[in-house]
């Protein structure tokens, strides 16, 4: 993670920056800090990416800092959205498979055992696109191999590989295990993609702190004011949201998910799907551990991980920046934040 975000708080960097500015306030102090404080490592590099150019253009222009920071942020957010979009697609695929799992298991098992296709009214989700196509190929080919070959040409190409493995190990019961593992695999990959997105979006919080520090310093604000901002902003939104997730409040979690990148996922059953898939992954991890195979199970609830970065809202950055430019007190600005 950039900016020391791995287990640490960006406020720690903001405090260091504030302390340095307290020694030499104003633009000159910031320039000196950026030139010499390499202990900040990637944090300082990121500050340079939007701040140095602004000072070259106009050494006393908060507007220059804002323009440069927006350019840097827009790149990060575009990258995050690309990752999140991939995660959303995987989530929808996993959920589709989750609600169709009973039918897929029935059709694959019957085909594997050489039975005739069932009647459509025997299916729980006949309109599910995956079930519909598997059923269609079952009717056309009357064979397990026909379904197997069809699946290899779809987005669910992982399923035939899983079937080949589990059928050898567990016989017909391997069909259940293969579908369970497919769902877990899809959700696990979605989880990894969201963590990639988080890598790009976490700097939004860092930049919120940095922007406040820089803007106030450019106005010659005393160190006490900067430190008051740090105290006010430290909680941000994360504690409340992670608490909702940790106590398992599905309505609160869904409300947040609906208002972010996952807006189209409105089924309350998604929360159940999260729990089911997490249990599947843990079960698979236990099996692998018993076989002596190294594993890296999903250790954090998917909803918690999604909330942790999706709800860091740019709205607050704009509110704080505008307030700082207008000379508002930190306590006045804090009342307007969407915390």
UniProtKB/TrEMBL annotation:
Highest taxon, organism lineage: Archaea
Protein name (database record): H+transporting two-sector ATPase C (AC39) subunit
Organism: Pyrolobus fumarii (strain DSM 11204 / 1A)
